[in-house]
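ok so for the tutorial part 2 we go from a plain amino acid sequence to predicted structure tokens. step 1 is just haveing the sequence, like this:
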Amino acid sequence: MREELKLMCEGLSLQDKVELREYLSDMINSSRSVSQSPLRCSILMGEMAKVMGKETIGYLSREADEVWARTMVAFQMCKEGYSTTEVGRQMMKDHSTIIHLREKMQDVFELPQVYGDILEIWNRFQKQIQDDIHKGTTENPVSLGGTFPDCGQFKMVKESGQVCPPGDLGNLHQGDRGQAEIQ
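step 2 — the prediction. this is what the tokens look like for a chain of 183 residues:
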């Protein structure tokens, strides 16, 4: 069977191979028995806000620094084993947008001379995450089941003032504007 699969894959176009890779990656990630917190996105957004010296990072903001912040958070979540579908759900984006963001971060790593400032923020973000782990404010980032006392409680607030509890962003729509807030 393995040889048959190899032959079948060799006959695929490059685009089909890329799509197959993404599908298999998502399938493998979603079948892991890792306990994944629905709050992880909010937690990472809070960590990124600290790194950038901001109070919050908007989930739907089009400001370049906040777009890059979300890109790094999405990449970190993928790195931690979340599927692109799950990351998209938590960030109110389509999974294909998460794939694009992940590829954009690959560009950052491949072209540090072009993206030096973004790479510097990424490195500070990674240090912030590691510092919190060593301070005992989070558990192992793979288990994602820890408590985060230094981060406070997160909530999503729409511009209309409607509050969406963590992990329950289903009543938000693509055009909604709002931001994560730390209580």
